[in-house]
Design brief:
16 strands, Amidohydro-rel, signal, 8-stranded mixed sheet, TIM Barrel, about 425 residues, alpha/beta, Metal_Hydrolase, Amidohydrolase, Urease, subunit C, domain 1, 2 domains, disordered N terminus
């Protein structure tokens, strides 16, 4: 019995090893690269027809329509009319923190307790996740790895999606603290879903006050010159009060967002609304208070019964018109691969195509505090580049053929493609 069990485990282990994809992180860029004869979408609204772009040592050197001819030691890539885009950025993801939702041992995005700002999601990021490769294949090159669970589950970090370990992946570490505000509405399947009950209102007030008290105590603690004991949770929000971090408040209803605005005023911190389903109703208030919005799940149903059925599609354009800084997010992990197409949907409901592109590139970079080094194809920024045969935001024509992260040409292979090739071979379709 023991021998049979050992044999089975050994065979299973060998099978698992053999089944792994031979996909490795790319080595650092060595030779300068010159892309030419392409339609270049800068990410800031500008489009260059028949343009060229060169990058070396991981940085963009030049971009334009009349660049000088490259020297002999440059790798020239004639794109023959293909489209060049900044790498898409996915905010509010658990990619790398979860692999199979139904298998608890593969989930590492939450910690026990309600207030844990000292928890760092970055150190739990799994660079070997098979999901990561499916994101790169659709042009998503950066992601904000975000903790969940409790009210204040920890800090999020931006990672680049081609790395051996979390240290290599770190792009901007611990850039935000997250506060999951309790919803005033009951869960979707609850009777009376669209009414705020007394119990929900009391729970909302109680839990929100708990976070407010924590921040008040943390602020007082950080103003002291000396401490009798170090409080790790208070220390974890030091950068928040120094405006070196942002507080992402996850909420959707108008009343919830107004409380978030009060947090920004009361504590003098930078607040970002995460979710913001009803943000279109108070766009002027958000603009006045300089509060950005990460619109989550654009492909979803309206929040309230009397909202327009296409309201989630129109919200982005309404925020754009009001001058509110916003970006798009799909939340979750595997769903992130559809993020460019959700931007495409927004472009048919009021945004221009380049404004929709900015909603998943430059705007996201601004909100995440990385716009000085990425988010658009401008000189001096990292060469995070996606190349597609068609419109990156249109699933009917988008075929990503090449991608570069910090100048490194990354693999676009993934488990889906490998299974596709496997069964083409099985049925004689190759």
């Amino acid at each position: 019995m023991k021998r049979s069990l050992l044999t089975y485990i050994t065979a299973l282990s060998c099978s698992a090893v053999m089944a792994q994809e031979t996909i490795y992180p790319a080595p650092p860029q060595v030779k300068p690269v010159y892309l030419t004869n392409a339609t270049i979408h800068i990410g800031n609204g500008q489009v260059i027809e028949k343009g060229s772009l060169s990058f070396a040592n991981g940085k963009i050197v030049a971009v334009g329509s009349n660049l000088p001819a490259p020297s002999a030691d440059v790798k020239v890539i004639d794109l023959q009319g293909k489209h060049v885009y900044p790498g898409v950025i996915a905010p509010l993801t658990t990619v790398g923190l979860t692999e199979v939702e139904a298998v608890r041992s593969t989930n590492d995005f939450s910690e026990v307790g309600e207030i844990n700002p000292s928890v760092r999601s970055l150190v739990a990021y799994n660079t070997d996740s098979k999901v990561i490769n499916t994101l790169r294949s659709n042009g998503i090159l950066l992601a904000q790895v975000t903790p969940e669970g409790g009210m204040m589950p920890g800090s999020s970090s931006v990672v680049q999606l081609d790395a051996w370990n979390w240290e290599d992946a770190a792009y901007k570490a611990d850039g935000a603290i997250h506060f999951y505000m309790p919803s005033l509405l009951p869960p979707p399947a609850t009777p009376g879903r669209f009414s705020i009950t007394k119990d929900r209102a009391e729970e909302f007030a109680e839990k929100t006050e708990k976070v407010r008290s924590f921040l008040s105590e943390a602020k007082a603690y950080l103003q002291e010159d000396k401490h009798t004991a170090v409080n790790l949770k208070f220390e974890a929000v030091r950068k928040l009060f120094a405006k070196q971090q942002k507080l992402f408040i996850h909420c959707n209803l108008v009343k919830e967002m107004l409380v978030a605005v009060d947090f920004a005023k009361e504590f003098g911190i930078e607040v970002v609304i995460a979710g913001g389903a009803d943000s279109w109703m108070i766009a002027d208030v958000l603009k006045q208070n300089n509060i950005a919005v990460v619109l989550a799940q654009p492909h979803s149903l309206p929040v309230m019964q009397d909202d327009d059925v296409d309201q989630p599609y129109k919200t982005a354009a309404q925020l754009q018109q009001a001058g509110v800084l916003f970006c798009l997010s799909n939340e979750g992990f595997w769903q992130q691969r559809n993020l460019p197409f959700e931007a495409g949907t927004a472009s048919t409901y009021g945004l221009s195509k380049e404004e929709a592109l900015a909603a998943v590139t430059l705007n996201a970079a601004k909100i995440l505090g990385i716009d000085k080094i990425t988010g658009s194809l401008e000189t001096g920024k990292d060469a995070n580049i996606t190349i597609s045969t068609g419109d990156l935001l249109d699933m009917r024509s988008s075929v990503v053929t090449q991608a570069f992260i910090q100048g490194r040409e990354v693999s676009l292979d993934n488990k889906h493609k490998q299974l596709y090739e496997r069964y083409k071979y099985k049925y004689g379709l190759k």
